[in-house]
Amino acid sequence: MMACGSVNLPPGFCFSPTDEELVLHFLYPKASLPCHPNIIPELDLSLHDPWELNGKALSSGNQHYFFTRVKENRSTENGYWKEIGVTEPIVSASEKVGMKKSLVFNLGEAPQGTETSWVMHEYHICSSSFSTGSCGSTRGRRKSNQCRSKWVLCKAYEKKSSQSQQGVSSYSDENDSGTELSWLDEFYMSLDDDLEEVMSHPN
User: Fold this and answer.
1) How far is CA 123 from the centre of its chain?
2) What is the helix (H) or strand (E) element at residue 37, kind and residue range?
């Protein structure tokens, strides 16, 4: 199933892990046991624009999951990933086990790129919690930390926008991180607009 480098989920199945599950059940085994079988494939971030991920990454709905090596420069042939916001901690059993960075894809060269509707979350392991993992010896922990520094887990997706064209659009708010507008918020906002229009044209 992994021979082609990707996995297609059967109808009715949805791969939708939480941030905690992504770090503990996928990123930790990848970092400590590089040969550990994993349904999430490895990709070179610099070789793939986000709209090329479908069929190469593990795709579930509009979300694409893949491992890539840690890079300072996240440029591709047609653009670059730019970090936005702050780094969020990922906590399990009151312990910080990882962190999540948010990025948005820009077309063109930095810093004059054009922002698109493509967003990516980049998951990292916390070195402090990783060093207390299952490796028994100091030598094992040192080796694991070296592996940990090589890999991150990425989740990329395109935000929905009515003005999208070839992956480019204004950055629309959609409920994903808890700080963005949900469809219900947008619905109520549209009702407010309709009410204002009715009040401005009395019978």
Assistant:
1) 7
2) none
pLDDT score for 15? 87
pTM flag (> 0.70):
no
Three-class DSSP category at 182: coil
Q: Pick the residue with more confidence: 14 or 97?
A: 97
Place of tokens 């989920």: 9
Across the chain, which distance is largest between two alpha carbons, in Å? 81
User: pLDDT, tens digit, for every residue of 55-86?
Assistant: 999 998 899 999 999 988 899 999 999 999 88
Of the chain, the end-to-end C-alpha distance in Å amounts to: 66
Query: What contacts 93, CB < 8 A, 6 or more positions away?
Result: none
Residue 106 and residue 48 share a domain: yes
Could you tell me if 188 and 146 lie in one domain?
Answer: no
